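Can anyone check this?
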Amino acid sequence: MDFAGRLKGRRIDAVSRRGKYLWCRLDDDAAMVGHLGMSGQLLMLTPGAPDEKHLRVRISFADDGPELRFVDQRTFGGLAVTSMVPDDASGLVPDTIAHIARDLMDPRLDLDAVVRVVRRRPSGIKRVLLDQQVASGIGNIYADEALWRVQVHGDRAADRLSATQVRQVLAAAKEVMDEALEQGGTSFDSLYVNVNGESGYFDRRLNAYGREGEPCPRCGTAIRRSAFMNRSSFWCPRCQPAPRARARQHSRDG
């Protein structure tokens, strides 16, 4: 059955989130799962409000309340109706995201288990933070901000960090995301808004990300930028010294 057909007449019983995925639990034991991708927006708007240029889905409710609209300029995001499957002792999750780990704000998160997983990874700690099967929801911006706070370079091998250091990194990541939520998120342009179409202001409180050449708020050294997985990392060379192999590479390049 098509997407609209599976939703018609259904009731939303609960709304949940894990990492970057949001789902609405339906009354027939299925779920509508959403991922915003790079530019998606979920907006709650009054019926009759002008359509957005990149409107993809409009969901109306029987109580004549606000519409739920999915808008996506680049079409990397999407909505889908899927079945639910068991998820350890906590109940059910959509089958399409059963492989996604709990995020740092989940009250059921087993932090000790996450620390053990992180410390078994030989990759750089930033790469591990972005692995959604380790702990979900930490994006590129907030990983840089967390690592700046605890003065750890993103290329430091995760398996060379102590359990205490890993806990500090994870605590900083949660702290950054909590603060970002209070500010409505990080909005660099009109694509990044909340369900009411309002921009967030956490970009004004960023200490490292996007601040190449600006003085580090802690020590005054110019923030550097380096390539990272088709994106960028921002870090302070004094507060977050690069691992020795990285430093030798810089010496050869310089």
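Reply from J.R.: I decoded it. The chain has six helices and ten strands.
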